[in-house]
Amino acid sequence: MEPQQPWDDSVAFSLVRLGAVAHRRYAELLSDLGLRPRQVGVLEQLRAGPMSQLELATTLGVTPSVVVDMVDELERLEAVRRVRDTVDRRRSNLELTDRGRELGRSTREVAAGLDEELLAGIDPDHARTLRAVLRRMLPPRGLRQEA
Amino acid sequence: MEPQQPWDDSVAFSLVRLGAVAHRRYAELLSDLGLRPRQVGVLEQLRAGPMSQLELATTLGVTPSVVVDMVDELERLEAVRRVRDTVDRRRSNLELTDRGRELGRSTREVAAGLDEELLAGIDPDHARTLRAVLRRMLPPRGLRQEA
DNA sequence: TCCCTATCGTTCGGATGCCGAACGATGCCG
DNA sequence: CGGCATCGTTCGGCATCCGAACGATAGGGA
User: Fold this and answer.
1) From the Cβ of A27, is strand C under 7 Å away?
2) Chain A contact probe: residue of B9, B15, B36, B110 with most A CBs at under 10 A
3) What confidence score (pLDDT) does residue A9 get?
4) Side by side, which strands form the sheet with A80-84?
5) Residues of chain A with pLDDT under 70
6) How many Å apart are CA B80 and CA B73, to the nearest integer?
């Protein structure tokens, strides 16, 4: 029975704490653009092309009802458009507008700036390792295996 | 104008995402003990000795009303005791019970297990670097500078 | 001694973010 | 045509946090 490390020393703790810090800070920076963190996922996903709301929901790992709210706000900002699918009129294909693409660019600048904030005073070699390791630890996007 | 990295490639994104993942998983593991993640902070802080609820609030970075709920549940689990300060009867000094110390040990085991889960397949050298870098990035506990 | 004010814990209402059930509109297939 | 599935939407609920207000208690000055 070795001496136990306090919870503070666990990687899990650091991730939970830093995740919360990064989220709060990101939300703060995004508010200048009139965006919330969760909208960024929408803008990112739509870069590859139009997508139905249900596809978006599964990709982002949220329920369809959450997508409704996210898209409502983005439509109010004229960043995305809901376009009824002509062949299956139940589907709304979401399209990025020019404004949406511009907002997307801004969010990526914000993210880059936040990375600089977070990595200030971190050895560049370590920062590279960090980036790589975090990517490896991240479960593949959009796969929500429930119990 | 260099090509912008998508949000997915930012350290901030990885931290937010992994933080959420770790939090969910930690909550899941803790539920076997009848605990929530936020209670663990209380158990950890009280290891050093008794503490008033207000001290705990500032240390954990939450409002006093949140502490009330956290302590209510921990008292129901008989993990902590509220002891009226005899010299200043407004204060409740929170004390860890034996059951509380035992629960604390269990939570540290859970955290260690979660770390193993999260670091599975990660090079041990990289894992060490990760731990060190995350600790450095973490802002000092209990310092909530508001605007 | 007696107020006046500050502090501690508590209660309550509100904001936020997410889920799940139910429902209308629409599509599909026998 | 009729029954069933699917998409988007609405609604209520749950969890977590905050901030305002309040009672109990403390402390200092007239």
Assistant:
1) yes
2) B15
3) 79
4) A51-52, A92-96, A80-84
5) 1-5, 139-147
6) 9
Question: Quick one: which of A94, A85, A1, A84 has its CA closest to A39?
Answer: A94
Q: What is the DSSP string of B115-139?
A: HHHHHTTS-HHHHHHHHHHHHHHSP
Q: What local confidence, expressed as pLDDT, does residue A142 receive?
A: 42
From B12's Cα to the closest Cα of chain A, the distance in A is 6
**Are residues A87 and A102 in contact, defined by beta-carbon separation less than 8 angstroms?**
no
B:29-88 Cβ neighbours of strand C under 7 Å:
52-54, 57, 64-65, 67-68, 71-72, 82, 88
Pinpoint the alpha helices (H) of B47-123: 53-60, 64-76, 98-119
At residue A114, the pLDDT reads 95
Q: What is the CA radius of gyration of chain A?
A: 18
pLDDT in tens, B106-117: 999 999 999 999
- pLDDT for A5: 67
